[in-house]
Amino acid sequence: MSTTAESLAIPPTFNVATYFVDRNVIIGRGSRVAIECGDRQITYEQLLNKVNRFGSALLRLGVRPEERVLLLMFDGPEFIFSFFGAIKMGAVPVPLNTLWKPPDYEYVIRDSRATALVVSAELLPAIQAVPPQARRSLRHIVVVGGADVTHTHMVFGSLLSQGSADLEAEPTSRDAAAFWLYSSGSTGAPKGCVHLHHDMVVCAKLFGDGVLGIHENDRTFSVAKLFFAYGLGNALYFPFHIGATTILWAGPPTPQNVYAVIEKHRPTLLYSVPTSYGMMLAHQRAGADFDLSSIRLAVSAGEALPASLYERFKARFGIDILDGIGSTEAGHMFISNRPDAIRPGSSGKIVEGYEARILDDDGRAVGPNEIGNLWIKGDSVCAGYWNQHEKTKGTIAGEWIRTGDKYTVDDDGFYWYAGRTDDMLKVGGQWVSPIEVENALVAHPSVLECGVVGREDDDGLVKPVAYVVPKQGIPGTAELAKELQQFVRERLAEYKRPRSVEFITELPKTATGKIQRFRLRALASHT
Q1: What does each C-alpha distance from 385 to 185, 348, 391, 429, 496 come to in angstroms?
Q2: Distance CA 196, CA 179 (A)
Q3: How big is the chain by its Cα radius of gyration, in Å?
Q4: Rounded mean pLDDT of 326-344?
């Protein structure tokens, strides 16, 4: 039986910022460290002050409840001040992927009609590259870091100084929109998942408490960034739910950086994705190995964790990795291994408080160990996709949501990933649309047509490979392959770049001209 906001005693009038920020101060946790970022430490009392200042400053700027506030920011305290400050005054923060390109930001600005944007200084050029007519709704741009401010921009610190340390929370409903997260679509266009005020509390209680047993002495470090649904739970509302400390790292998640953060800040909970765990295992140093002794549990999501990666990490560091599956639509994880119930290679068991079904294409339940479509029921599932009525109806059916994943469940209740119902790829924990990559490639003057599929690497992790048919008279050389990879890199986010380009004389197609991706996948598995 699924857990609901009502069964968790979340009141009808409820502003979630007060739950995760104000409550910690009210119950005596004000002096505890909420955030560590580099050499900065911010207590819960200081956090409340900054959240109030940001929220009240937005009100003074004329930002109104229910208006969207885009957050294009590297991980840091300012992200958290902005996120909860916007929610507390009734606005709707929308974290954005820092790896996107200007066309992606243009789409989201148009789609959300946001009135304010908070942006890290290093990312401001990507916004400035958006045509002015596309960002007409943005009345306010607030820059974090850097002092080059024009009449259209303001400095984050100056904005905070204009705010008040006191802010009465907007009396929102537990079922009102609290924040959005954009999820990549099968055609490349992002979908805005509208999450409600109660959603984060449901996730924190069901997964944070129920699976991790998180407590106030925990110190969490998420390699997955805050703009991910996964990272937002790991690094923000899970620790704040219990008064623990979150450790933030703004830089790139290279193995060297990840190890350095762990050894300096000594987290007890580590969250990452399989690709990152593989990179950590590949990284060695002379002398004593990296010290991960502070970590009591590691967690993985974003893509299926191969059993071999789990076993190698356990053998090297003595740490269990709890693999699981969640989604942007569900807020966080709904199936997971447990500290006392780990089956390497599986996604684990259903998280208590959620329900799962595995159905065939006609909606009938399949038997044990039979592949079917995974459906999930839980009260953290988003209300729908903004401006995407048909896609909402195609994904959410009453209380149930179609995940788009193929699964089996064994006799012991462990769920096993069996692929996607569409052609989407999970690469390094992020969705990649083959169609989007193909559209970028065919824009190159040497490409006649192409098809993109996933191919497993030596660790069993999926990477995109492009099968390209060159135009007549153009040879498929190694130089052209590199040129095409760079061509995609300049137009799409780096993680969408094909890891290899293979040249073929023609694509396998149906009688109606549709690419037979299953044949390309079979080809990829033998090369």
Answers
A1: 11, 28, 7, 21, 23
A2: 7
A3: 23
A4: 97
CA pair distance 359, 46, nearest whole angstrom: 49
Q: At 178, phi and psi to the nearest 5?
A: -110, -45
User: Which residues neighbour 460 within 8 Å (Cβ) at sequence distance 6 or greater?
Assistant: 306, 308, 309
Task: Check: CB of residue 160 under 8 Å from CB of residue 143.
Answer: no
- 373 contacts 406 by C-beta, under 8 angstroms: yes
Clarify whether residues 262 and 392 are in a common domain.
Answer: yes
Check the CA dihedral 481-482-487-488 and report its sign. Answer: positive
Q: Which stretches does DSSP call E strand in 23-176?
A: 33-37, 40-43, 68-72, 92-95, 116-120, 140-144, 153-155
Which of 156, 174, 192 is the endpoint of a domain? 174
pTM: 0.88
Residues 360-370 have a mean pLDDT of: 90
Both 58 and 106 in a single domain?
Answer: yes
DSSP characters over 322-346: EEEEE-TTTSSEEEE-BTTB--TTS
The β-bridge partners of 410 are none
Structure tokens at 432: 């990649």
Which range of residues forms the domain containing residue 26? 16-174
- Does the residue 187 lie in any domain? no
Residue of 59, 27, 21 whose CA lies nearest to 43: 21
Mean pLDDT to the nearest integer, 282-305: 94
